[in-house]
Amino acid sequence: MRDDIDAAADRLRDAGLSVTDWAWIDEGRAADITADASVSAIRMALAPLEEHVDIVVQPGTDRRKMLLVSDMDSTMITVECIDELADYAGLKAEISAVTERAMRGELDFVEALRGRVKLLEGLEASAIARCREERVRMMPGAQQLVRTMKGWGAHCLLVSGGFHHFADPVAGEIGFDRAVANQLEVIADRLSGAVTGPIVDSALKATLLHRSAADHALPAAQTLAVGDGANDIMMIEAAGLGIAYHAKPKTAAAADAAIRHGDLSALLYAQGVPRAQWWSAE
């Protein structure tokens, strides 16, 4: 880790930028480097190092955010729920290929969602609970991130282009204040192949971030958004700090920073919080 700090400092100096200080957040794990330069100039100088270390470049003020808005699938949990649900219908390969293209921004999200859900028509509704129990797992660092932020009074909102059948229990387990997601229609204990109500798309995710910030009288600088897919880009761009988490290339390019190597606890380090101050289940 010290080698990474030295490499970063050298990169900044080679770019003609002034390194004013550095300090450990957690020794050997995470550190702050302070430089007297613009955020964009620092990002450009450090970009080559991102292949092997996570770097978040941001102003020194308003580091501890008071609003977290997060995607669910492949962000707060390790899977794409619709792909796993499709496996119970024998359609995982077909549906996951569409999911991948939609998350890369190659397909219209709403059309792709409706098309995939239509393929699930007739699947027994009991498969949802089975899928949730057998396949859905929390992303490492999820509880630490959300519950630590809630400990200092932050509001945490889960916004998902997936489904309430998964998002509601996931939000409860991790510790979110509430969840917003799509609703699968169930008729006579089987999926109808339709989604009811408004679709949670990229525009609605960004709207929910703006609305939540306004509801809590928070400036944009005190907001944090994290996601992995193209449908998270508007939300990520709207936040004071927008993070792409193990994300698709288009999403990573749009974000303020990309976490490629660490787990979600990296977002606590980004806020200057040492491990000793993280929430723990123990």
Comma- or semicolon-separated keywords:
two-stranded antiparallel ribbon, 282 residues, 12 helices, elongated, alpha/beta, 40% helix
Structure description:
- With 282 residues, this protein is an alpha/beta fold.
- The relative contact order is 0.16.
- The model has no long low-confidence stretch (mean pLDDT 97).
- The longest helix has 14 residues, at 202-215.
- It has a domain at 1-53.
- The protein has helices spanning 2-14, 39-46, 81-87, 92-103, 109-119, 126-135, 142-151, 164-174, 202-215, 233-238, 249-254, 266-270; strands at residues 18-26, 30-36, 67-70, 155-163, 178-187, 190-196, 223-227, 241-245, 257-259.
- It is 40% helix and 21% strand.
Order of helices and strands: HEEHEHHHHHEHEEHEHEHEH
Uncertain stretches of 5 or more adjacent residues? none
Percentage of β-strand residues: 15-25%
The average pLDDT value, as a whole number, equals 97
N-C termini distance? 28 Å
Main sheet specs: 7 strands, mixed
Work out the number of β strands.
Answer: 9
Radius of gyration: 20 Å
Topology diagram in text:
Layout: H1 2-14, E1 18-26, E2 30-36, H2 39-46, E3 67-70, H3 81-87, H4 92-103, H5 109-119, H6 126-135, H7 142-151, E4 155-163, H8 164-174, E5 178-187, E6 190-196, H9 202-215, E7 223-227, H10 233-238, E8 241-245, H11 249-254, E9 257-259, H12 266-270
Parallel strand pairs: 3-4, 3-7, 4-5, 7-8, 8-9
Antiparallel strand pairs: 1-2, 5-6
Summarize the structure.
This protein has 282 residues and is of the alpha/beta class.
